[in-house]
Amino acid sequence: MITTDICIVGAGPVGLFAVFEAGLLKMRCHLVDALPQIGGQLSEIYPQKPIYDIPGYPTINAQELVDNLLKQIEPFNPGFTLGERVEKLERQEDKSFIVTTSENTQIRCKAVVIAGGLGCFEPRKPAVERLEEFEGKGVAYMVRNPELFRDKEIVLAGGGDSALDWTIFLSDVAKRVTLVHRGETFRGAPDSAEKVAHLAESGKINLILKSNITKINGNGHLNEVTIAGADNAEYNINADYLIPLFGLSPKLGPIADWSLNVEKSAIQVNTFDYSTNIEGIYAIGDINTYPGKLKLILCGFHEAALMCQSAFKYVFPDQRLSFKYTTVNGVNAF
Known about the structure:
The protein has helices spanning 13-24, 40-44, 62-73, 161-170, 190-201, 297-315, 326-329, and strands at 2-3, 6-9, 29-33, 50-51, 60-61, 79-82, 86-91, 97-101, 106-109, 111-114, 120-123, 153-157, 176-181, 206-209, 212-218, 222-228, 234-238, 241-244, 248-251, 262-263, 266-268, 281-283, 288-289.
């Protein structure tokens, strides 16, 4: 059995930063993730996606952020159990927990931090004829390797941050990029929406608003997309790839059975310390919810810092917490 102070469910960026904050307070961490690699959604879904809202980095790609976080937590030597899903949580008489995974790995810990992002997730698929027929043959729900799309004709669909960010990025990679959005305005960051508008005005991309993709065609591989406008008139455009980016459908999986207060597949927390309704269990990052919640990585970092201050008092109730600044003491001083 693995023994640690904190078991973190989820090895994405917020879970990794929680290791750093816990390490500053001399708490040991072990992370469990159902994915086979560290990095959560960043590594699994869009490792090359540019991220623009990390303080100190005008832009950084997703995998680089993960790599930097791993380097940051090296001094604290966390443990990892990857490719295994957390299945069961049992509270012990001494108020500690035993976490059991799908492969019967057991972790005994004093506190549990759920940092599972969107939990178990799958892409939301639009209602497009023959969509599943072309999955892996021109239809992709994420961009793992942008070089796959070099000098190709790409059609993206969606109106959120992912659709905007990938439109901007792939405009310098693909032969032609077309962004199709059913609305007139975007849900993503205003700055990104403005950049996409400028790209369209300059002719570098095609921007088609108030429209939907209705059908796709091809012979073994996608080669054509059918688009319907506001008047329902349809027309075809050539396409080597279609990338629908309508977000992910979150599912909590076994965590839903832990008697936590849940609202729309997200765990309710107290914003004082991001604790749940069960003492000793915390939730940080995209998996939690509270009034004013923003699903941003930088917000998850903030939640991790405050959570660790509270978790220290739970893990070490007899010790006095002495808050220090890394700028004064340096990481090695902790």
